[in-house]
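Re: beginner question about structure tokens

> Can someone show what the tokenized structure looks like for a real chain? I only ever see the sequence side.

Sure, here's an example I had lying around. Input first:
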Amino acid sequence: MKMLKRGRILLLLATASFLFACGDGGSSSGILETGAVSLSLTDSTTDLYRAVYITINDLQICSNNNGASDDNCNWSSLEPPDGMQFPKTYNLLKLVNGVTEAVGSGEFSAGTYNQIRMIIGLKPELENNLLGEPNPAANYIILNDGVDTVEQLKIPSGLQTGIKLTHSFTVDGGEIKDLVLDFDACRSVVKAGNSGKYVLKPTIKVVEPKDKIDINGTLTVKDDSANKIEGALVSAQISDGLSATVVRSTISNNEGNYLLSLLSPDQTYNIVAYSAGKRPACKAFLYNDPDDEYIDPSLDFMLSEPASGTVNISGTVNVDGPIEDDFLLVVTIYTELDCNNLDGESYVELTKVDEIIYVDADNTFEYHIDLPKYDSPVTYYVVASAEGYIPVTGMAEISTEDDVIIGELTISAGQ
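And the corresponding structure tokens:
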């Protein structure tokens, strides 16, 4: 199928509409049986890095409407916007707080499609990065460590054939289907505990921006509204019993402001605000609330210093299975917060442990993290997980302790 750039696509669709209006473009002409797909790229904010560079070598869509098997897909490539060409190296951290950049478009037959594939490039484009230097690699990060340390991202072998994204969408005749690839850099870049290397583990959602909403607000210290909180993690989560899924996340800027974009207006979210050393907060949010005449999609948070200080939670994780150099162990902290839901407290994700240390050849890792203590007892849930392994949860019930050691957690290979 011939692929067209966005300007030519617009011309084609305009021509199709004109012919149809004049009675010269019935279905027998075939013109109205095609539409277009336009892909854009965006990212969530993180303060761990100054830059996250990813090179895209190709963007493809399974053009024969077959989402059941990759082997049966006819992969059709999209064309980059005018004036661009693949490979193209993107700094994802320039595409935050609702900013998007067009990355590809093409003409497709009207119908339903199920799969998109992103081919990660291994050679960078010939342009300078934000340091004014040529890109040292196709995929790399610049640490926010004060000295601009550059770390190359290791690409797992499983990504060599492309990152496959399953998302069903419909292309209508004579129309352009806009899709956004939400590339979460904070969750996609992981430091392997045993090798110390940074690994690309893509977390990408395909979002249709039509009819989506943004939630924004400001974070301040309680009883000190002039004290803005920079670097706080704010996330939109869907909680269901003892599970929580982070849909969007961001980091507050130096003015304490945050923006969560591309959220569904008819979905109830728990908006969770967490800043190290402060008591976290949560507010439930539903845009289409039939009981309210008008809803302002903004939520401000005032986070307080915990009266009882912090507690250091530590422990070990044993891996019952093989460990490669790029093995990625993830330790996530959950708790229950009052989000003003009718169902009572909600199970929410607070944060992930930044530093996990490989101890020895017995496949054992150590972790530790400081978390706020409450005036009343609080329970933290520590979940150890890795791709291909069954997650395991440990609990830390905190009252007056300053240090809590959780017994060894063992994750075993499984589905």
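Each token stands for a local structural state, so reading them left to right follows the chain. The longest helix spans residues 6-21.
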